[in-house]
């Protein structure tokens, strides 16, 4: 076989290399052409970049349209740990990638919005991809944070707006300052917006975008940092060599060194020449030290921080931005948040000016994350911003949260004076429909009664009805000048049981009266009076069964007598409590009463009087007759309770929106028994409103001053009021010096149901019972240091508990100075006593002394066969 010739082989190789040589020649020619036509590259590159940017922006806008918002509402006890917050940060970082594959990186972000517009102290929202909604909705904070789907916020345009973008300055590898969780890291931001006013159009909003750090950018940054570290080490080594050589040359040229060399030469010593300088080896670069927080990929994110402040008043947005800038300084350490831009005199070239403003607006509106600098941080550095405000955050009270008191508005109830962070003072109120029960605690003279009087006076001028029960009577002279107005005088009744003046004027009340038309049923009257005696005297079924039985049976007969008298048209012949003695001890009176009421008593009651009563020894009556004897021995109580046609009718007062002032004479045993009767009658009257449809029940507010005195007379009755009155639109306001001295049932019912709980200054021990209800925030020491008329209070507004808030108690001479009519007080007292049907004490005493004879005469004339001569009186009292 012939072998190919070498010539043919070289020709084949040349033929195969020809295309490669042609390609290289073409590349050289293309490079030469581009070199000579370089000016054509710029528009081409610009066109390609513009086309790519248009496509990316369209995709970004499409992706941004598929976003959702969640609002996080923390509970008052929200107190997360570092691990819970860190897990939340991991969720946010993971959720930022829940976008379609085609979405540009700028849209792969989760945004935290901290917003204050005057409606709430700080709204905490999360906005992110729709695909990450489930991941973001279930938080590691548990039930302490309520997550709800939020609607888009439509801001009305403000006249003045400032914008700012904050970037990380300082060492790029250094972390932000580690801010502790207590106090809340958000506190500086909350303080920066605490004086924001919605009526001036104030608005402040911070948006923090979080996205995962790009791997390629992170690698390039690390390479740059390592190269910079190596260069720095080499420079340090070269600098060290220069200093060493300089130091060595200085030593060689020094006088001691020259003398030593001369002496060495004279002695024949051969000294060495100049010393050899060994240059230091550059220190090995520590990767962790050189890269800092960028050394590891885990939990490293890129952030963008944008801020907008607006207002309708010029200058307020700039001032607000300065406050927020100072608040962000709290997070600064070797690395810090700094406002982007260049300041030239009074001007700043930043997000508010061209060319940055357009890009800022695009990122603000569409949620794009395009920070001009990497802004790489670890999740631990963002701990304070990854959660809503906690219980360690002191939130301000904004105007929309607590309504401002308006004089004459029946929907509002005055609570006190609130001082805003900017020094503004305003009268604040709660909604009357939500203020069901109130309790005020504090030392004597601290201002709790003054606050209650201001509230009652405001309620009275707004057309509301109330009962003010004051065992000491000090409240009436204090309130009278502010109630002395003609529209109010016809609605005020003064029940004053204090013998004041040369001719004391006393009102009247018959707890057993049955002349009030559609008044209480007989068994309700019997039950109310018996329960009042039992509460005041400590009777129980186990300790005083015979006393309860005797009093119940006697009152059943006397109410039947009164029914008969009213049906006979003789209501002035009704029996009173003081006829119980005659019924039990006078056989003739008892026989006449039982005969006259035989057809009104049930068979069991008649049988008891016939078979059981004769077997009871006379000395068993003392337990019932002794308290009645004490009432009869006091001329005031005898006159007040001994009238057949009493004027006092608390049910009529409630329905007619009356203002009733009741002032018992003291707090002795007799006064406690009278107070128990009044309290039980109030409980009966309020419960009787079940006959009225709920929407037709007129709101009524009983004010009880000195609850210790009142509950000493009727503890179970007062406790039942705090439990039941809400259903019947009767709202109790109680005041006491010591919560601990109240009976257990009253104290528990009061603290359980109180819509408003307030305390003035007092001893630390006494105040501890109230502050314990607030979790000792404020502490007893803080409350004990309050000034006079200052108090802490928790209020209920829109179903939410506010506070404890520090309020200045309203002083009548300041708050209602324009209402004072001291010259009309005499006319007011005359009208109030006239409405209460008062008469001179001696007249009432005489009438009470002769009432037994009138009742006996009626019984002697009345027989069951007699037909009633006319219909009973329909007088309801206070008409």
Features:
879 residues, alpha+beta, 9-stranded antiparallel beta sheet, 9-stranded mixed beta sheet, 31 helices, 24 strands
Helix-strand layout with pairing:
Layout: H1 6-36, H2 41-64, E1 67-74, H3 82-95, E2 110-116, E3 123-129, H4 133-137, E4 145-149, E5 160-170, H5 187-192, E6 203-212, H6 215-252, H7 255-266, H8 287-291, E7 300-311, H9 316-328, E8 335-339, E9 342-344, E10 347-349, H10 356-366, E11 376-378, E12 412-419, E13 425-431, E14 438-441, H11 448-461, E15 465-469, H12 475-483, H13 486-489, E16 492-496, E17 505-506, H14 522-537, H15 545-567, H16 580-585, H17 587-596, H18 603-612, H19 622-633, H20 635-641, H21 650-655, E18 659-663, H22 669-687, E19 700-704, H23 707-713, H24 715-724, E20 733-736, H25 744-753, E21 756-759, H26 764-773, H27 780-784, E22 790-797, E23 800-808, H28 812-815, H29 825-835, E24 839-840, H30 841-849, H31 851-861
Parallel strand pairs: 14-20, 14-21, 15-18, 15-19, 16-18, 19-20
Antiparallel strand pairs: 1-3, 1-4, 2-3, 2-6, 5-7, 5-8, 6-7, 7-11, 9-10, 12-13, 17-24, 21-22, 22-23
Helix pairs in contact: 11-12, 14-15, 14-22, 20-30, 22-23, 22-24, 23-24, 24-25
